[in-house]
Write a structure and sequence with these properties.
Blueprint: H1 4-27, H2 31-50
């Protein structure tokens, strides 16, 4: 069973990946894709905030 640190690392990795896809979707004017990714982004952001992760340096979207 994964420990808290492993879970947090996985969430951070997913958060960074979602942001990368959001930036690409915005660049390609893929509004529906961006909207779907944003929902995942917000969920991951909430989880990371609860876990006490400082998102200042890794949040590239700033929404």
């Amino acid at each position: 069973m994964p420990n808290g640190l492993e879970i947090t690392k996985a969430a951070i990795d997913d958060f960074k990946k979602i942001q990368k896809y959001m930036i690409l979707a915005k660049k390609e004017n893929a509004a529906e894709t961006y909207a779907e990714l944003k929902e995942e982004y917000l969920s991951l952001k909430a989880i990371l905030n609860v876990a006490g992760v400082n998102l200042t340096d890794i949040d590239r979207i700033k929404e």
